[in-house]
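Why do we bother with holo predictions? Because pocket geometry can differ from the apo form. Keep that in mind while you read this record for 2'-O-acetyl adenosine-5-diphosphoribose.
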Amino acid sequence: MKLLVLTGAGVSADSGLATFRGSQGLWEGHRVEDVASPEGWRRDPSLVWRFYQMRRAALSTVQPNAAHLALAALEARCRQRGAEFRLVTQNVDDLHERAGSKPLHMHGELAWLRCERCGTRVRDLEHLDAECFVPCASCRAPRLRPDIVWFGEMVPSAEECLRLAAACTHFLAIGTSGAVYPAAGLIDVARRAGARVLVQSLDEPSNLAGVDEFHPGRAVEVVPVLCRALAQLLP
Ligand code: OAD
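The structure, written out:
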């Protein structure tokens, strides 16, 4: 068994982090292109910095939920039984890590900052309340940017994720609306490779197909059940 799990904002919603496209959307009051694009950063770096500082500070107020924990337990179980398990997340929070998983973050991580000049990446949770920019300790550039993949930017792990999707036997998507590519295309790659496809979300994602097994509901309630069912399939 080769299991690939793709998570989106819905898996962290029950921990209290807002999803993107819900009515309480994180982007409320901000146009996406103002706060999540290289153009927005060039135009108004202070606004973008404050927006991400707010999101970074929110990390310390939330905890992993039953869905994060069930996925981490399934990963450990797969490892014990010699089955392959990979977790790819579009989320920039660190709740999967704090639950014990080792996710691949397609869209970057709030905990990290990056220097545009010299490329140095630093894990930084010290300056969460800093209104002013954090300079680069390596090259002295005046400000680090959030290490987030913004709209219009390349997704560095795209090829690796496509390879994982093409090779999996089971694909489980959780809490993602299927609206943002290339993540939204992984399900189709998995389907074409003949994988069994399970989808868990509150609302039907836009990329759901008739052959997929859809498990509606809240991630905290449904994901632990799905993980137990998948664990039963292990050799
Ligand atoms: P969205 O906000 O687009 O979708 C969240 C999904 O989670 C929806 O389908 C909801 O139905 C579902 N959902 C909400 N609450 C849930 C719950 N308690 N349990 C289960 N499902 C729930 O978020 P993503 O698909 O993750 O990109 O968005 C993809 C990307 O768009 C993000 O990574 C971000 C954003 O722009 C970047 O920042 C580059």
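Residues 18 and 26 are 6 Å apart (CA to CA).
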